[in-house]
Specification:
Elements: E1 3-7, H1 14-22, E2 28-32, H2 43-55, E3 59-63, H3 67-75, E4 79-81, H4 89-92, H5 108-121, H6 132-146, E5 152-153, E6 156-157, E7 161-162, E8 165-167, E9 182-183, H7 209-220, E10 238-240, H8 245-270, E11 273-280, E12 283-294, E13 306-323, E14 326-329, E15 334-343, E16 350-352, E17 357-359, E18 365-368, E19 372-374, E20 378-380, E21 383-385, E22 387-398, E23 408-410, H9 419-424, E24 425-428, E25 442-445, H10 448-474, E26 478-479, E27 485-487, E28 491-494, E29 504-519, H11 520-534, E30 540-541, E31 547-550, E32 554-556, E33 561-573, H12 578-585, H13 590-597, E34 603-611, E35 626-631
Parallel strand pairs: 1-2, 2-3, 3-4, 11-35, 12-13
Antiparallel strand pairs: 5-6, 7-9, 8-10, 11-34, 12-33, 13-29, 14-25, 15-22, 15-24, 16-19, 17-18, 18-22, 20-21, 23-24, 26-29, 27-29, 28-29, 30-33, 31-33, 32-33
Length: 632
Amino acid sequence: MAHQTFYIDIDEEITSIVERLKKARASEIIIVAPKRALLIQSIVNLRILKKEADENDIQLMMVTQDKLGKILIEKAGIFVQQKMDNISDEEINLNEGEMTGAQNYPNENEINEIRESQNRLSQIGSENYFSEEEKAQYLEANMEKNRKIKVVKKDESIQEKLINKELVSGVGKISGKKGTRVSLDISARSNVAEEPEVIEKSNITKENSLDQEKKIENFFFQRGGFEDKPRKPRAEEFINYDLSKKDHKGFLIFGLISSLAVLSIIAYLFLPKATLKITAKMKTQSVDSNITGSTSVMSSDFEKEIIPAKIVSAESSIAENFKSSGDKSVSNQKSRGKITIYNEYNASPQPLVATTRFLSSNGKIFRLVNGVTIPGMETVGGETKPGTVEATVVADEAGESFNIGPDKFSIPGFEGSGAEKYTKFYAKSDTAMSGGGSGNQTANYITDGDVSEAKAKSLTKLNEEIKNKLKESAGEDVVILDDATQGDEPIYKLSNSSGDVVDTFQVTMQTKVKAIVVSKKDLNEMVAKMISKAGDGKADIDSASIKLDFGKSSVDFSAGTIDIKFHATGEIIPNLNLEGMKKEILGKNNEDLTAYLSTFSDIKDANVEYRPSFINSRIPQIESRVEIILDK
């Protein structure tokens, strides 16, 4: 199995190592890290490295002699060895600072203490790592011993800077200042002194490359060699980050752009704006005149005072029921009513003479008052419809028993003409028969007054209906004058005649009307011009203020004209140059604005509204942020 070995520098950044990992040609990578390498001092860096290896399907192993580094590597889930046969101690310690001075090597007792502390290091992150008393004693003793150990590079001494601080429960407390750089002596980085390695200068015997490849291959296939050990997240584990200069620069640029965007929005929404509302002094002007509406013109002629007109027409019908007010004796009176006779037999008309009998379903005989002819069947749109005719019938005998409700009637005279004809000619009544009685009984009947009153009420309602129909036909925003209409004589139809013994009767009325109408907009514009002309001819008239009273109008439908007489009043709008005024008031304070507006005799009152509200002393210098409204 192909593999690669990476040797990293003591101060090599995680970004550089990850980039090398991504460019690796092998699927098995060994990373050799010297003691105190920046990579193995941060659990975050190690976890990032592990994540990148997993995402690129790379089996990863690390080799280091750094004791604390080994613990962090294992916690990150990466397999770690202290040394390998094919990697010498000299290679592992490449680029690492040399240990100098015999006095700096620990004695035998110190080495024993260090070895004992290794068992305690395996418990880093657990809650029982140190009791409070043991922790204080242990820290004090080891700090005193380890202060003597110094690591010196060739030609220069260094102090490590702790940039990423990782603390676990029981070891220490997190600094209250995030991002603060703290310079620490190497002895203070861990509570456990590292066991120094004494390197003997001797020739390192190397096995042949084939044996080394087998060892590496067997190593990568060790059981559990690269299996990630499950790790429970610890609530008490904290990580504190410090940002590099590059990150600081990125955040600075992002913050600057965000600030500019916010300032732009604030400037747009809250840039000062002023609204000046002016109340003008209004004068009233009136005029009495007339305007001609003509169907032959398409637009208004202000010189000739002619406006467009059009002819509209509408047709309407109504049916109203009324109560009979008469009261008379119905002794020996015969019941009567109306029926509809049907012909479903053939297409030929069928005449019926007066007194033709009609038999109800309960055996009561009624006779036709007048002779009628039943129309034949007809076909309309592929559908055959029976012929029908309405007729009045009267009971064959007097009596209250003939006051029957709606029913179906047969014609006994057709019984001998065959079963089909007998069943195909029939009649129906939609209302009850009434008026039959005997003895001293009384009943209501229709009087002449009932008929006259019913006609008058029906005509009033018909006129209302026809006006609505005219408006629908003419469209919205038109003027329909009462004198501008012409209608046909209404056609009346009574369900019963005066004197008939019935409780109620029905009046049906229909008519057709036409009218010459004009547009309300055209009329008001013409009136406004005429009011202005009645004054100095230069003033503008507020169309909404115009009030019109119409006189008698004359209409000529054949010529398509209407002469409209009227009396009108309207308010004159002062001639104020609002755009010029806006330019003059830019930048003025309230005192100067008041002085400027007081020079206009046509201004009654004025007030200015500033936005935002806390800016209330000066009109903005930008014309687009100033608005003038003329309050009429």
